[in-house]
Specification:
Elements: H1 19-49, H2 56-85, H3 91-125, H4 127-133, H5 136-153, E1 161-165, E2 171-175, H6 182-218, H7 224-257, H8 267-291, H9 293-303, H10 309-312, H11 314-334, H12 340-364
Antiparallel strand pairs: 1-2
InterPro entries: GPCR_Rhodpsn (IPR000276), GPCR_Rhodpsn_7TM (IPR017452), TRH_rcpt_1 (IPR002120)
Biased composition (Polar residues): 360-373
GO molecular function, one term: thyrotropin-releasing hormone receptor activity
Length: 373
């Protein structure tokens, strides 16, 4: 069987028996995958369990987190065992299933990035239209459509991979047809799930930057309701940039190997490409924690197993408000002959406390994601 041009994430070439290679490979993969699995699980939990985090943008981030988890579990963890044993130990069913899940996670993550890029463009550049278009229910329908389409598309890999046994008995999960047949598949994959999303992101974020610059010149960006969507957009732009950079080594290698007669399959460079892919799936929760105050507060609440900070701040106000009103009502009832003036005083005090309570809630809770200027 001719060695295929392209590489799978589990590596179709035999892993070297050098001790330093195995040590570096296992350490890097375990470190990156461990951080990524914990971080993405936390992203899913904070959005699902915290009501004020359930925004259209965060729905796409949950889809991205689940896709990244799929990549880390289906590609990263089997790679550890592959490095330690030097052979494929998951059998025929594992070869088909793990390869399918690898490409499913990769393609869904790309589609999720494209979806929240379009959502950000509508929310910033067309704020009036965003009120009806950028909704949680619509985001859920789009995410369901993305997963259904990608699940069907990736079924192609069930017919392209199989167990390969070399003459010396070395077992690997590899390609079962000649590499020339993979060229159109990889070119389509490269175009749909890498080139088009990046080109679309460049155009849309360019338009977003233009709109934000014009608003800055007019002085409207000083308003709190506008500054928060800007911070969210910056965070998502960083996610897109890192997606482009960390996927570039693997995508470039695949593209070059598709046209050369002798593919470049250096084991150390393949390890570098795989590590970049795993890092892309692991780094997004770190970005959220560093650039989003809402995610940072939600993560802290998850750490301490407490209510989110936004809900905790309102509790002392409620208790003190009810206590003050009760004391005022008691003192009025104990007086001699409660008159209209005292009743008006109580009503005015209640109104003031209610107003302070509402102001406290507005200050303690971040602005929603999809607010226009």
């Amino acid at each position: 069987m001719e060695i295929p041009t392209n590489i799978s994430l589990s590596s179709s070439v035999p892993v070297t028996d050098l001790l330093e290679y195995k040590t570096v490979s296992v350490f890097l993969v375990l470190l990156v995958c461990g951080v990524g699995i914990v971080g993405n699980v936390m992203v899913v939990l904070v959005v699902l369990t915290t009501r004020h985090m359930r925004t259209p943008t965060n729905c796409y981030l949950v889809s991205l987190a689940i896709a990244d988890l799929t990549v880390l579990v289906a590609a990263g963890l089997p790679n550890v065992l592959d490095s330690l044993t030097g052979k494929w130990i998951f059998g025929h069913v594992g070869c088909l299933g793990i390869t399918y899940l690898q490409y499913l996670g990769i393609n869904v993550s790309s589609c999720s990035i494209t979806a929240f890029t379009v959502e950000r463009y509508i929310a910033i550049c067309h704020p009036m239209k965003a009120q009806t278009v950028c909704t949680v229910s619509r985001a859920k329908r789009i995410i369901a459509g993305v997963w259904i389409f990608t699940c069907i598309y990736c079924m192609l890999w069930f017919f392209l991979v199989d167990i390969q046994v070399s003459q010396d008995g070395h077992v690997q999960c590899g390609y079962k047809v000649k590499r020339e047949l993979y060229l159109p598949i990889y070119l389509i994959d490269f175009t749909i799930f890498y080139a088009i999303p990046l080109l679309l992101a460049i155009v849309l974020y360019g338009l977003i930057s233009r709109v934000l610059y014009l608003r800055y010149c007019r002085g409207t960006l000083m308003k709190t309701s506008v500054k928060y969507p800007v911070r969210v957009t910056k965070m998502l732009a960083v996610v897109v940039i890192l997606f482009a950079l960390l996927w570039m080594p693997y995508r470039t290698l695949v593209l070059i190997n598709s046209f050369v007669s002798t593919p470049y399959l250096d084991a150390w460079f393949l390890l570098f490409c795989r590590t970049c892919i795993y890092a892309n799936s692991a780094i997004n929760p770190v970005i959220y924690n560093a650039m989003s105050q809402k995610f940072r507060s939600a993560f802290r609440g998850l750490y301490s197993c407490q209510l989110p900070v936004a809900h905790q701040r309102t509790l002392p106000v409620n208790l003190s408000g009810f206590s003050t009103v009760r004391d005022m009502q008691t003192s009025q009832a104990n007086g001699n002959g409660t008159n209209d003036t005292s009743r008006r005083t109580v009503r005015k005090s209640v109104t003031n406390l209610t107003k302070k309570h509402n102001e406290s809630n507005n200050q303690g809770t971040d602005q929603p994601t999809d607010i226009g200027p």
